[in-house]
Structures are given as C-alpha cells and as structure tokens.
Amino acid sequence: MGRSAARATIGGVKASDVARAERTELCDLFLEVGPDAPTLCEGWTTRDLAAHLAVREGRPDAAGGILGGPLAGYAASVQQSYAERPWPDLVATVRTGPPLYSPMRWADGLANLFEFAVHHEDVRRATPPLPDGSPSWQPRELPPEEQDLLWARLTKATRLLARKVPVGLVLVRSDTGQRHVAKAGSPSVTLTGAPLELLLRLFGRHAVVLDISGDEEAVARFASARLGV
Fold first, then answer.
1. Are residues 75 and 12 in the same domain?
2. Is the distance from CB of 163 to CB of 196 less than 8 angstroms?
3. What's the pLDDT score for residue 6?
4. What's residue 5's pLDDT?
5. Over the stretch 194-215, which tens digit does the pLDDT of each residue have?
6. Which residues contact 116 (CB under 8 A, 6 or more apart)?
7. 68-91 burial, b for 16+ CB within 10 Å, e for fewer?
C-alpha cells in the first residue's frame, strides 16, 4: 500500500497510521535498493538497519542492549543472526511489524513514528551528491497534517533529544512560523525548517534542508553536539 492509499484512510491522522505508512515505504525502498546500500547510520548498510529494526521489535530479550550496557554484546550477536537471513525474509519481518507478544505491538504510534520516519530518510538520503556537489535527493512534501503531528511530537521530545546541546536552541517551522524553545540558554542557535527536517537534525542527521542562524561560535558548538536519544 503506497502513501496515497494509506493517507486516504487516516482521516484525523493518527501517529500509528503514519508510522505504518513510513514502515511500508521503507520496506519498499529496502527491496528497491537491496541489502548492501548505504545508510546515514554510520557503518550500517540497509541489511544492518533492517536487522536492527527486526531485533528492536521482535526480540525484547535483546532489544535492551541496542543502546549499550551489559546486554550490548548479546544484542549485537542477535542482530548479526538476523542480518544473515535471506534479504526478502528479513524485509518481510520488518514489514509485518511487532509480533503479538512484543510491547511494541501496543505502542506503535508512540514508539515507531520517529523511528520509521528517521530511518526511511536514512536510506533515501544516503546517496552520492550530484557532480555539482548538490544533494541527489529532495525533501519529501508531507501533507500538512503529518507535519503537524511530527511537530507536536517533536516539541515534546526536545528535552531528551537536545539534552547535550551546549547552547540555547530554538526551532522554527518554516511553513507556519511556529517557534519552540528546545533548550533555554544564551547564546542560542535557531533552526528553521519543516518539522521532518528539524526532527532529522535533532536525531543527529546532517543531510537536511534547514536554515541555521546564530553567532558563529554558537553555531559551531551546536554543530559539534551529540544529538538524539
């Protein structure tokens, strides 16, 4: 089911519906580019990313080690075993979503909206630049209601995502002019862009379309900050 068909069933746009649409489009893209394509996740191919997603949802015994800690070695071993599966089977596992016993099954909109929106772009944007140095990808034109949803969720998550930013940070929606203080402080940096672009930057991605303003030192300090969960 493509995004247009998914959108027709959204009505009042639910996070779970958008997350499922992002999942579907990512899986379609996985099959299009194959298992060895690059991603924006450093050191990961599409096969690694798909294995990560499958383990995160389907192996709660290992998912706790994804971000490190005492289970990190076990999580890496389980992820490698998933990565060794035939590519169509691995993609089918991601497409199917969490099994019935997984907590992710009951928190799809909460747990997966950002996860699949960001990882979809991790594959879309991991392409070589054009000969003139410009990006070979273009930002997606999401419907306003989906951008509204991303913005609403993002403004509630900035305390976590921007916790390591060493300067003040203000987000501005380029389509509506709405502002959100992600982190109070002076000097500060202002990021202006569509909600999806702002989301990607706060997850540490640099392949984004944003205007960044602030004094030179503050911008440099922001650029070197570690962002994301």
1. yes
2. no
3. 38
4. 38
5. 999 999 999 999 999 999 999 9
6. 19, 22, 23, 26
7. eeebeeebeebbeebbebebeebb
Nearest CA-CA partner of 143 in 1, 16, 18: 18
* 136 assigned to some structural domain: no
Would the CA dihedral through 53, 54, 56, 57 be positive or negative? positive
Q: Report the sign of the C-alpha dihedral through residues 148, 127, 137, 86, in that order.
A: negative
What pTM was computed for the model?
Answer: 0.90
Q: 3-12, 50-59, 165-174: which has the highest mean pLDDT?
A: 165-174
pLDDT at 3: 47
pLDDT tens digits, one per residue of 166-177: 999 999 999 999
Q: Which domain holds residue 178?
A: 145-223
The number of domains in the chain is 2
**25: closest CA among 53, 11, 6?**
6
Looking at residue 71, what is its pLDDT?
78
Q: Could you give phi then psi for residue 154, rounded to 5 degrees? A: -65, -45
Q: Is residue 64 part of a domain?
A: yes
Number of Cβ within 10 Å of residue 128's Cβ equals 8
Alpha carbons 186 and 169: distance in angstroms, whole number: 9
Beta carbons within 8 Å of 64's beta carbon, 6+ residues apart: 71, 75
d(CA 115, CA 69): 21
My answer on whether 15 and 111 are in the same domain is: yes
